[in-house]
């Protein structure tokens, strides 16, 4: 149980904000047991509290607990957000089955959240490690259809393109996107290197949304 001292402190403030601050503090210290006690004591647990505990489990390698908590959140809690999915997928890409990963992806789609590039990167990793290359390509293509998202997250989008090329060295969309991202950062030598790789692989077909002029 929580100490009386903590309860006395929290009684002097907004209890919810006080307890969530304590929850965050315990998580940062890696002290998960009292963090879970605080979480369980909260009457109205919002997405911030759920995600904070999930992140704490991830940081402390409690992967089975992460997935169990996520299932509980889906059943009882608020809708997860991009931060929640990013934490869950960081575990999913390394330890869960592809079917479980697909279920998490489906939950992300049902949530109504516009998936961030970091979440999409995690999905690409999960699908590629699971051998589902076509699914990884589809996720990557969705990233590039959201121009605003890509331009705001150039580095993450670059990681996504590089990651996809590791599993599909002839993916023309990934080459074009990567070259455009380098150009956007003024990295002309890197853009030229990507363009040369495209030619070496014989990748000539253009996809909608990408142009050699941009490269």
UniProtKB/TrEMBL annotation:
Any one biological process term the GO annotation gives: RNA modification
Single GO molecular function: RNA binding
Assigned keywords, A-Z: Repeat
Renumbered ranges of PPR repeats: 46-80, 171-205
Keyword Transcription: no
Signal sequence interval, chain numbering: none
Designated name of the protein: Tetratricopeptide-like helical domain containing protein
Species this chain originates from: Trema orientale (Charcoal tree)
């Amino acid at each position: 149980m929580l100490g009386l001292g903590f309860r006395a402190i929290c009684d002097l403030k907004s209890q919810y904000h006080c307890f969530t601050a304590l929850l965050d503090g315990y998580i940062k210290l890696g002290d998960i047991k009292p963090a879970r006690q605080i979480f369980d004591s909260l009457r109205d647990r919002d997405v911030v509290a759920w995600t904070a505990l999930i992140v704490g489990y991830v940081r402390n390698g409690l992967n089975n607990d992460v997935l169990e908590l996520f299932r509980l959140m889906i059943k009882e809690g608020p809708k997860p957000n991009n931060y929640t999915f990013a934490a869950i997928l960081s575990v999913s890409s390394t330890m869960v089955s592809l079917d479980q990963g697909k279920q998490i992806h489906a939950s992300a789609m049902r949530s109504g959240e516009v998936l961030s590039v970091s979440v999409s990167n995690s999905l690409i990793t999960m699908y590629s490690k699971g051998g589902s290359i076509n699914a990884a390509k589809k996720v990557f293509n969705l990233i590039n259809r959201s121009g605003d998202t890509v331009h705001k997250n150039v580095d993450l989008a670059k990681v996504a393109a590089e990651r996809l090329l590791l599993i599909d060295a002839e993916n023309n969309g990934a080459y074009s996107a990567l070259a455009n991202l380098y150009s956007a950062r003024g990295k002309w030598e890197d853009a030229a290197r990507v363009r040369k790789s495209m030619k070496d692989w014989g990748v000539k077909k253009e996809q909608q949304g990408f142009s050699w002029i941009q490269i």
